[in-house]
Design brief:
This protein is mainly alpha-helical. It is built from one helix and no strands.
């Protein structure tokens, strides 16, 4: 159980560090996502 938690933590850490790159490749947005963009605001 301890080894599983350590592996899951390492995977989450790696995804967190790679997230900006993953968003640029198109994995940050899914079909059905709602994006509101205004002049100085993005939601």
């Amino acid at each position: 159980m301890q080894r599983l938690l350590i592996i899951l933590g390492a995977i989450l850490l790696a995804l967190g560090l790679l997230w900006p790159w993953l968003q640029k490749s198109g994995l940050g947005r899914l079909p059905g996502d709602i994006v509101v963009r205004r002049e100085n605001f993005t939601f």
